[in-house]
Structure formats: C-alpha cells, structure tokens
C-alpha cells in the first residue's frame, strides 16, 4: 500500500478533548474521527486493526466449537418487557418508536433476541449443546462517553451464548469460552488478569469472570492477592480486616454530646475518635423500601454487594428529610439502636468488640456500643468496599490494588432468560425443561484502545505484531534519489510476495515528518532506505525497542519475514 494513496491524516497537535493516551494517539495517528460524542468513524488504519482483532476472535471462537450468526441491531421492546429488563436496564437503553408507534431499542446486548431465536428453533435435547456468537455493533446511551472508543455510545462487541441441557454441560461450555478468551487476549499481545466479577445488568446467579487489561487509565479497580490466585473486581472483592472476631467489651454504653459533628472526619478531629471504632449508619432506599446500613467509619458501602444481599433491583441513599422522618435526627447522629426499619450490618461491624454510634437524637453519640448486645440486625454480610491492605479471604496475605480495562466478561446465566422467555427442550424422557444458558462478551473495539494503552511511548503507538495495521513500514528518505526509490520499491515487492503487509511512505515529505509519522502510527518494523543504499545497506528499526540494525536488502527481507512469522 502506498501511503500517498492511503486515506490517513496524522495530527501534530494533541486534540483537546482527548483525556487518555489511547484516545490521543488514535486521533493523532488518523485511526478514528469523532462524529458526535461517543460515536466514531474508523478510518482505514484503525479499521485494519479492528479487522485483525475480529479475525483472531473468530478463529478462537470457531476453534472452541461456536457457530457465527448475525442478529439484528434493532430489537422489539416486547422482548425486553418479556424478559423483565425493560425497566431494569435504565437510561442506557436507547429506545425509540417507529412510524407505527411500536417501541424498539438499539441493542446494547442480545440475550433476549438469541433466546427468542433458540426457543423457536430448538425442540429436543439432541440439538444441544450449542454455542452461537456474533460480532455486532452495539448501542448504549452512556451518560458520559469518554476515553474515545474505550467508553463509547456505539461500539463493536463479540457476544456468544451457550445452550446446554444441564449444569455440567454449562460448566464445559463456560470453561471452553474462558480458555478461548485467554488465548484471544494472549494473541492480541495483552497483559491481563482474570477476576471474579458481579454479573450486573446481564444477571444470572452462576459464576462470572472479567478479563482485565492492566492499565493506569482503567475505569475498574481490581484487588489481587500476590500469594495465591485470588483476584476480583472491587465491586465483588472481599477482604478481611484487622480486629474482626475480637472479644466483646463488658463496658456499658455511655451517652455523650457531639454538637455540630455530622461527619466521621469531624468526630475524629474534635473528639479524637478513630474512624475504625465508629459505627456509621446510612439510610438507603432499596426498591423504595427504607433500610439502615451499618459499616465502620473508615469504610464505604459497596452498593453492588448491598443490592445483591437485599435482592433489590436498585439502592440509593435517602435524602436528609427522609432520614429525619425515619429516625428523628439528621445526618451524623443516626445509630443502629431502636430503629423502626430493617438493619443490615457489615461483617466487620458485627465482629467489633465495641464501637461509637449515633444516638438517634441530634448531637448525641454513645460509647461502648456492643454489636449483638446493644443492637441486633435483620441481615448481615460483606457489604463494605474492600481495598488494598485488606487480608486475602483465602490465604491472609495483604491484597494489592490495580487499575484495569474490562475487555471481556463471561457469565453463567442458568435459566434467567430461558424461563422468562419459555425457551425449553424435551429431554430423553420426554420431559420439557428450560435450556441452561451462558453468556460471553468481548469489547472488540475497546481492545484497540486497551492495546494502545499498554503499547505506546511518548512518540506514538507500538503495535503488537498480530494486530498491527501493517507489518512493515518502508521509508525511503529521499524519493528524488533513484537508488533509494528503486530499493524501496523492490523491498515492498519482495515482502508482499512473501505475504507480508507493507506500507510504503512514498510521500514527498521531509525525512523528519516521515520518521515522526512512522513512530506515531506504530507499525512494528521500519525499513529505512537512505544514503547507505549506495553501500548496499538499509536500516531495520524495531518500533517497540528502538533497536536499529544495518542489513543488506536480502537480510532485511529475511529478518522482517522471520519477525512477522515468529509470533
């Protein structure tokens, strides 16, 4: 491919709207252009990377026994109403009416559509197991699209769905997809971790794992044990804290005044109280039902865990007017004693020897409050947000914190959708049973951004060979020099004959412009044809390491072919 004919326009200035390296570099390298917030056009350079990733995904999905389909982007609202997710999914679900006033959605995911397909086509256990997948454009009306294609409103996703007759079959399908995902991300040249995860809006009560590309700009926090294989998204992670299961205090609770102290920080600064010893009580609405939640003063409520414990669709903090009506006091003085609403207690609170708690009257707290003696609870569980330094629940080692970009997620759905949409089969005894489902997603377009985040320097992108838009970038320094021009052309021809993808920079530009653009675009191997071609030598530069080697054209061709084929 001649660069003078290639539709790519690099940018010298850093776009003002780009917050992270991948967004800046993808714009500057001419890979993408924004149409509207969260919606991008892929230019040829970016689309070539996208197609490379899609090819890897297809190869591994096909190798795992999955079959490719293509489902519609437009879905009827009736299917979402039938599954029960019409109200649950929230404002991210992009809804619209057609000319006949029928409600439709642009699909953010395809559980309903695939289940509807299977319920009309599958009748017998003889047709199972089966895994279907697609690579499809999805739409989510993000409240704040950001980071370029990393969190966009329109994006490309691979979603797969497995259908089995029993849980053992689901385990096999899940394991096959899990292993395929590991191979996909390895082939894309990514450093990743697999972590336990919350299934979120997809639902299902079985296992769930996320595949996280490690990156400082990742929007997810993961906690990892360095001593064992425990790793989890902070939404699900558990960690033991010091002081759990200590001896109970024998002191009687003692009332004391705390005028004007409404926050943990004020209690600490004015009265010398250690936040770990304070029992903080917050009032939530869980599906519009009030519930009090008790955690330690230095902890935060993990609302994902709270929602799961309560079996609620949504939870949100109550406003101060509601808190006053329910407790008789405002923020800062609510305590766990004598409440007229259900109380949920975090495990760390339930195990405290004693603590300081609000007195449910203005400017009053109590010392020596003993959980289980001075107050009881309606439910107890791990509802705090775990953090670095907590002890691993498996081996006790301190947990470490990392940032990650979620690029894949696998779920055991069970019968959540098959029961709701009546997708069933006849077993070998003629008994009708719901199919057992799994769901497996990969953010294909997000993988591009994740790869750039892990593979870049201050000059530009450094593509891993398997997903690079081209394998080799040939750079004649001076096109007016016939020897350089002819040598560059011959290198391109010989490499292309060997099956190598080559971009020839045949533009009439200064050498510095060519070299800067080459580093920005990040093609793994640069062959630079300059004055030393008169000595029968060209420079071979490896973009990732910056290593430069002087080789004959024959040696350069062999080295480039070997580098491409060795991965």
From TrEMBL:
Superkingdom, natural source: Bacteria
GO MF assignments: aminoacyl-tRNA deacylase activity; ATP binding; catalytic activity, acting on a protein; proline-tRNA ligase activity; transferase activity
CDD domains: ProRS-INS (cd04334), ProRS_anticodon_short (cd00861), ProRS_core_prok (cd00779)
Domain Aminoacyl-transfer RNA synthetases class-II family profile per the UniProt entry, residue ranges: 33-464
UniProt GO cellular component terms: cytosol
InterPro entries: aa-tRNA-synt_IIb, aa-tRNA-synth_II, aa-tRNA-synth_II/BPL/LPL, Anticodon-bd, Anticodon-bd_dom_sf, Pro-tRNA-ligase_IIa, Pro-tRNA-synth_IIa_bac-type, Pro-tRNA-Synthase_IIa_type1
Compartments reported by the entry: Cytoplasm
One of the Pfam families matching this protein, by short name: tRNA_edit
Keywords of this entry: Aminoacyl-tRNA synthetase, ATP-binding, Cytoplasm, Ligase, Nucleotide-binding, Protein biosynthesis
Job of this protein: Catalyzes the attachment of proline to tRNA(Pro) in a two-step reaction: proline is first activated by ATP to form Pro-AMP and then transferred to the acceptor end of tRNA(Pro). As ProRS can inadvertently accommodate and process non-cognate amino acids such as alanine and cysteine, to avoid such errors it has two additional distinct editing activities against alanine. One activity is designated as 'pretransfer' editing and involves the tRNA(Pro)-independent hydrolysis of activated Ala-AMP.
Subunit structure: Homodimer.
Domain comment (free text): Consists of three domains: the N-terminal catalytic domain, the editing domain and the C-terminal anticodon-binding domain.
Family designation: Belongs to the class-II aminoacyl-tRNA synthetase family. ProS type 1 subfamily.
Protein name: Proline--tRNA ligase
């Amino acid at each position: 491919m001649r660069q003078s004919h290639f539709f790519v326009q690099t940018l010298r200035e850093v776009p003002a709207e780009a917050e992270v390296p991948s967004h800046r570099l993808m714009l500057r390298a001419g890979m993408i252009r924004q149409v509207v917030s969260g919606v991008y056009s892929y230019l040829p350079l970016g689309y070539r990377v996208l197609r490379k990733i899609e090819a890897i995904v297809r190869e591994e999905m096909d190798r795992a026994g999955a079959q490719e389909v293509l489902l519609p982007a437009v879905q009827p609202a009736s299917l979402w109403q039938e599954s029960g997710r019409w109200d649950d999914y929230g404002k991210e679900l992009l809804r619209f009416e057609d000319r006949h006033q029928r409600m439709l959605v642009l699909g953010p995911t395809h559980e309903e559509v695939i289940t509807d397909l299977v319920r009309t086509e599958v009748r017998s256990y003889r047709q199972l197991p089966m895994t279907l997948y697609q690579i499809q454009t999805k739409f989510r009306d993000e409240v704040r699209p950001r980071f370029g294609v990393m969190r966009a409103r329109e994006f490309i996703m691979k979603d797969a769905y497995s259908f089995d007759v029993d849980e053992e079959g689901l385990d096999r399908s899940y394991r096959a997809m899990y292993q395929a995902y590991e191979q996909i991300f390895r082939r894309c040249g990514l450093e990743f971790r697999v972590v336990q995860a919350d299934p979120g809006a997809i639902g299902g009560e079985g296992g769930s794992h996320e595949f996280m590309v490690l990156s400082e700009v990742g929007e997810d926090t993961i906690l990892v044990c360095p001593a064992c294989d425990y790793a989890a998204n902070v939404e699900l992670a558990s960690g033991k804290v010091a002081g759990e299961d200590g001896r109970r205090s024998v002191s009687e609770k003692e009332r004391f005044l705390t005028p004007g102290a409404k926050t943990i920080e004020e209690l600490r600064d004015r009265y010398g109280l250690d936040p770990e010893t304070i029992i903080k009580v917050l009032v939530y609405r869980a599906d519009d039902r009030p519930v009090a939640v008790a955690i330690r003063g230095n902890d935060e409520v993990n609302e994902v865990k709270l929602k799961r414990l309560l079996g609620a669709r949504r939870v949100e903090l109550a406003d101060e007017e509601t808190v006053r009506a329910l407790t008789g006091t405002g923020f800062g003085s609510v305590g766990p004693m004598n409440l007229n609403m259900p109380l949920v207690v975090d495990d760390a609170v339930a195990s405290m020897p004693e603590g300081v708690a609000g007195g449910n009257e203005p400017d009053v707290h109590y010392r020596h409050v003993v959980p289980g003696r001075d107050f009881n609870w309606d439910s107890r569980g791990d509802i705090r947000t775990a953090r670095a330094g907590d002890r691993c629940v498996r081996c006790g080692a301190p947990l470490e914190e990392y940032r990650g970009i979620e690029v894949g997620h696998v779920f055991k759905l069970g019968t959540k959708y098959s029961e709701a949409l009546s997708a069933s089969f006849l077993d070998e005894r003629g008994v009708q049973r719901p199919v057992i489902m799994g769901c497996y997603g990969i953010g294909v377009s997000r993988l591009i951004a994740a790869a750039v985040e892990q593979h870049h320097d201050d000059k530009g992108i450094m593509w891993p060979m398997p997903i690079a838009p081209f394998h080799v970038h040939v750079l004649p320094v001076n096109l007016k020099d016939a020897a350089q021009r002819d040598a560059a052309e011959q290198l391109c021809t010989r490499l292309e004959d060997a099956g190598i993808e080559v971009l020839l920079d045949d533009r009439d530009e200064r050498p510095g412009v060519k070299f800067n653009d080459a580093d920005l675009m990040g093609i793994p191997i640069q062959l630079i044809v300059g004055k030393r071609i008169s000595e029968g030598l060209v420079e071979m530069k490896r973009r990732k390491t910056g290593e430069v080697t002087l080789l004959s054209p024959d040696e350069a061709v062999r080295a480039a072919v070997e580098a491409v084929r060795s991965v």
